[in-house]
Amino acid sequence: MARFVIRRLLQSAVVLLGVTLVVFLLLQLVPGDPVRVALGTRFDPQTYEALRARAGLDQPLVVQYFDYLRRALTGDLGVSFRSGRPVTSIVLERLPATLSLAVTAVLFALLIAVPLGILSAVRSGSFIDHAARVFSQFGVSVPDFWMGIMGILLFAGVLGWLPPSGYVALTEDPARWASHVALPAATVGLVTAAILTRFIRSSMLEVLAEDYVRTAEAKGLRTRTVVRRHVLRNALIPVVTVVAVQLASLLGGVIVIEVLFAWPGIGRLTYDAVQARDYPVLQGAVLLVAALFLLMNLLVDILYARLDPRITVE
């Protein structure tokens, strides 16, 4: 296991290196001068050249990239063109908001998808099965921003139960945090639940068709016992991958939802950085998202071996 983890960490480091190179090269193709955007419409040439030199933009591209890579290895992701603050501090400040939204949305999705997917598979062809399939198709097809707008109109505008936007830290006021996170988490969670419901249903149906399940039923075991002892553990193992990918995607920031609900997370930060041509912040946000994806993949591989002893990672 230790050798596997070390090997995956080395592979992840290579992937991150590739991500930094691709993002750096792509940013060079983005139109617009970030220094001019940062200075505004009125500035003198001396200030312009001084800021370019401070940001290292007067150096050749090869020098700029290796200088960024050298600083990134020490945790220094540069300084924001827009605010003049360290990028590392800006990204870490936004991470708790995105983390709370992502975890809440995934938990909300699991509360819906797991029982619905199991019931849909066990009672295939029933009303519950048809309802689950309609729900999953609806959740996948309808845009999340439309569901978010409808949620704001109903729960904030008509009923007045929840605030339409804004963010309060969990550590500051748990009750107010819960009221603010409810709408965006439910919006994102419904889409995630639709994806997970379809996947859980298909995985359950595949395991229910196995010979050992039919043998257990032939021995006279009740359906509930067969599902609990023989089906769930094997059927839910592939679901771990889907849940991890969904969580990693949400940790990267749901840009549309965060903008719609004025949620100060990584997605909103990325959106603002693109608008302001703030390259250091954009690079730092993308690097964080890539690291989170790689971390989730590593955790899933380790969890696989714990859930199923037949799976060896060596």
From TrEMBL:
It is found in: Cell membrane. One of its GO terms (biological process) is transmembrane transport. Pfam families: BPD_transp_1, BPD_transp_1_N. This is ABC transporter permease. Residues 95-304 form the ABC transmembrane type-1 domain. Belongs to the binding-protein-dependent transport system permease family. Its main location: membrane. It comes from Micromonospora radicis. SUPFAM superfamilies: MetI-like. The chain crosses the membrane at residues 99-122, 134-161, 181-200, 235-261, 281-300. The keyword Transmembrane helix applies. Keywords: Cell membrane, Membrane, Transmembrane, Transmembrane helix, Transport. It is a multi-pass membrane protein. Gene3D superfamilies: MetI-like. Signal peptide: none annotated. GO terms for cellular component: plasma membrane.
